């Protein structure tokens, strides 16, 4: 997965004096050199640092004879280049190397002592070669050339407007016997069709062409919009054996490109989309894999035809540009990683008319860390109305990228850390400022102390992977308020700390979204740029990085790098098969340039980096991939064999490796480069009874071959001869990983990330998983919209994302009538903080899908989902939260199955879930008349006062006062329930009366005002008949109800001598406590038993009991400092009643009253 970072840099290419328009940029195969082609010149640049090396400008006679430059292409060994001119002439240039020890661009220090360099960063250790560019051959074809592609180190294919494809050698000789003519090539939909027809139309020619030896042919697009694939029985491409395979349903193709590693063929289209095909192994036809389509949130319009597409060097992403401007980046199987059309360019930029990022040519640099782009910029005249006569200028941009370490090191998919690598730095996501990390040992010590740690031991999105996703699958148990790693499932034992204890994070949600950027030391990167492999251990403390040569280690605990003491040893080998950590050892597959042999090496991290401490095992073939399974090392070599080794640790610095098994997988892949990843698991395809298989069964290999996931296992059918059987589990797979567990009696879960197809999982899932995916996404920040400045383009940043996936698993299980399995999984996740949110997402997605369906649903899933959620105590909360976040129009469908809101409200009161009942009150306010919502609000207010829920009571009082008395007689329109579920229509709603409320509320309805049980219209009519019309405004019935509830509660608290409750009530419900006590001192607030009241007062307010030895003379207390009993002041006995910022409680609002009282002192 690739993500842009920083500003696009502008390279200064005007210093050569060439004012011609820049046409193309093309990198060589190893991405060290790149060529810039203008209309009249050719320049060769070095990629790191980006400096020009040599330039060649054609003279006027050559331009007049052959025309201006059009295209440029490298020879595979970077020794020659070919330029195509407008008149159809091939100009072949030879690139020579001048043998100079120091190369070019040598830095010379100033004679002044103060200006001399004294830092390693100021020295360029990279030797930039001195090159010469000379014209070797001129090959006139006398027909315009449309595209060119290299097929070998000695030959290239040239497509012309005459409909022919010429084969020309790099020495300028045309091989006419191997040239192709489209009118003689048979085309069909697959290779099994006996009837194939050549192209009979005139003036049909190839406009775009790309070749891949791993796919075995050419991907071409024609000028009439059709697309096809040219293949043959062998790579010689005899014209009599070449056959064309049509890409069906395409009539607007604009460009073509091939992914070698995943064997994919991509075609850009004029409708701004792209389609990706794969070759069917059975029929040989082109089978649609996926499409690259912009979503409306990325860009609602059309950015024009696809101009160009380029795969990254590792084949993990493809970049696409459009004719109207803009670029986008997609993963191998269609997941959108970045789209510049969604960037922030300011308010004055109209992307539909003028896109600031109009790319006419592009190519990837070394390891895909930079994207070179030729940007076309409109001048000020072009931005005006008369843009027809305006000119456009072009410049060279460089956009930096970081990528997931899994793209080149698949074994990193088993770790729960987000690690991205740039060309000279690493990006790690850690929550060092927000996480609480606790010590834990096997013998739990209750005196556990939390400490702030800079180490990241938890699991972010994701991704990966996804965008660099990784799934957190660590097992936890609860021990009080501290989450510890179970003794039998301990993830690791931390020998990096003084205490032999493990570390565990309390919650994954507390992780920081900030990135830790680890810059590689100049001493290593100056001569070993760029980063090729990176790995992190399970604890997230130790890092290993391999560049062009050797490797380096980094410790987050010490913040220091460890390099080879002997630089010669560092330069004697190159890492080729990846890096991984096993306990305190770093393992790698490498090639020794001293012995010219392939090796496996293991270095201990605690020892010095020296070959004396390394374990070196010779390999029979180049190591391509390595991985771990428990204590086994899995090695895939270039000869098509997978070998499993047992790792045995002798002491802290030495290990031994024992060969276990050898797997021959040469028949499962076209080429070793097509093996994306290899791992081992306990998963079995039980095709043979266990009795016949025997007791000594080996593990199963899981191979990702060009995106197809294969399960390979040994079978002997009871005989002594064993053979391998393979089963295809899935296709379009970018990344795989297994749940890490040491429980042998549990099978492992297999997780897949399939790009645009989403994620897939093979259950069962281990209990106590952190059911969340972490990943990375791209965002931009605009600093200035002035197009004249270099910083006018947005600044690219990285953001960590997360996504809960538990509800997706539960939904699929419920759909398959596996409710018990879903309940078993959900029960193990109830301790997760986002478990209620997962249930809410489950209900919300099913509700949105079924309630918005235009057709009746025969087998609705909503009843099963609600029945499933009822098994958990958060059912009422889940239903109301889902309803409040859903449109009101969908409520009838929800409550037709979940139950009436009134009934759910009553269940909340019965279970004392008052906050949840408040949410149901809002539902009732939108569905029922105001009189009903007032009745239930009054009932909830009584319960809140009874349970001393003061903040809730204050909100309910505000709610009741906000009810307009004129709205009570206008009921809401009743909704119809259950039309999709086939339920009968509801009966006419009945107006509530006194008997109904008495039946619902019971004894709590006593003393209720008739304003809550009678129709307000009837009540007003009765008042008109019994009393004369008053000119004063009447008090709303809701206010009368609130006042009576307050009075009843005050009297109850006063009778129970609960002064503290009265204080909180006074602060929350805004009534004057002192004034009320004064008025009611002989009635409701009268104290019958002063001694009991005084004791209750001290107990409620937690005041100290009076002591006979307590001296109240402040002078004596000051003189005697040895007084054992403290002297309490009135300030220490004050009551804090500032709850929710309530108004004045009455102490200062009554005239003539004292502002302070000596009631505590009267205790003596």
UniProtKB/TrEMBL annotation:
GO terms for biological process: intracellular protein transport; retrograde transport, endosome to Golgi. Its main location: membrane. It is found in: Membrane. Keywords: Membrane. GO terms for cellular component: cytosol; Golgi membrane; Ric1-Rgp1 guanyl-nucleotide exchange factor complex. Pfam families: Beta-prop_RIC1_2nd, RIC1. Residues 807-972 form the RIC1 C-terminal alpha solenoid region domain. The keyword Cell membrane does not apply. Residues 1009-1042 have a biased composition (Polar residues). InterPro entries: Ric1, RIC1_C, WD40_repeat_dom_sf. This is Protein RIC1 homolog.
